[in-house]
Amino acid sequence: MKSRWGRARDATFIMNMLKSCANKKDLHEGTRIHGEILKRDGLLLEQNPCIATCLINMYAKCGMFEKARKLVEEDSVQNVASWNALISGYAQQGQVHEALNVYSCMQRENVVPNSVTFICILKACGNRSALDEGRRVHKMIVGRGLLKKDIVLATAIVDMYAKCGEMTNAKDMLNSLTVQDVISWNTLISGYIQAGQCSEALDCMQRLYCECLLPDSVTFICILKACGTVGATNKGKQIHDKIRRRGLLEKDVTLGNALLDMYTRWGMLSRAQKVLEELPARDVVSWNTLISGYVQHAQTQETFNCLE
């Protein structure tokens, strides 16, 4: 690196390095880069808030929250992105109360939260089934009028209620949206399946078509699981035909594996074998799914044939 890191290309390089450290949770390398920044150009963090935010994100993702928080408090710019990086770190660790505490500190510093702030907190609430906190955050969002056009934020609320097992609230939230997309419906469908309400998930599939929305691979993966669980053989076969006609199996091995799982659940092993043979892409999970089906139905020779 050059002796001065203030140039755009150098700043971009530094940020990319820090993002890589965050993704890999490489605290050693991230700390070394931080040291190099301070040693070579102590003013860089003040001149480029984005680098400071990347540092905060790196420390938070590596679980070094005290270090990350200290950087936020020392940041002369006090931008919302740096606070969001800290909140996101807590959220990913499932530390709901800490995330909310940072949110309170953020308000005291007169930093205005944005949709990303609330999405991070809602994720933490959902992962920890912290329903009371989630409802409080929902109320804050409504009070700030942030739901009018933000489908991503609204979907985060649907996801929070679904993960907390509050499917009525999740459904009501989705129905209240003036604009819906396939991701918001997938979130509700997935929630119903996690709650063991597979029939409701199948009903959502019909509603999705009524809303003139086109299901994607995630939708089909969820619905195939529901069909396999409740034994909806006709519906499952219809979904298989829709998937085939749209050519979705060409590159999506996960979708192919969901088909295999459905047929093996029903004991339709010859059909599952045919599906596997026709898949343009398959992995060890594909084979394990079929092998497991043969084992469950005591078809020893077919099991060893799959292994071969």
List the helices and strands and how they pair.
Elements (H helix, E strand, L loop, with lengths): L7 H17 L2 H14 L3 H4 L1 H13 L3 H10 L5 H13 L3 H13 L6 H13 L3 H13 L7 H13 L3 H9 L6 H13 L3 H13 L6 H14 L2 H13 L7 H13 L3 H10 L5 H13 L3 H8 L1
Helix pairs in contact: 1-2, 1-4, 4-5, 4-6, 5-6, 6-7, 6-8, 7-8, 8-9, 8-10, 10-11, 10-12, 11-12, 12-13, 12-14, 13-14, 14-15, 14-16, 16-17, 16-18, 17-18, 18-19
Rg measurement, Å: 24 Å
Domain module tally: 4
Secondary-structure-based class equals mainly alpha
Helix content, binned percent: over 70%
| Poorly predicted segments | 1-6
Mean pLDDT: 91
Order of helices and strands: HHHHHHHHHHHHHHHHHHH
* Share of β-strand residues: under 5%
Q: What characteristic shape results from the CA principal axes?
A: globular
Q: State the major sheet.
A: none
Please tally the β strands and state the result: 0
Separation, N- and C-terminal Cα atoms: 53 Å
Count up the helices. 19
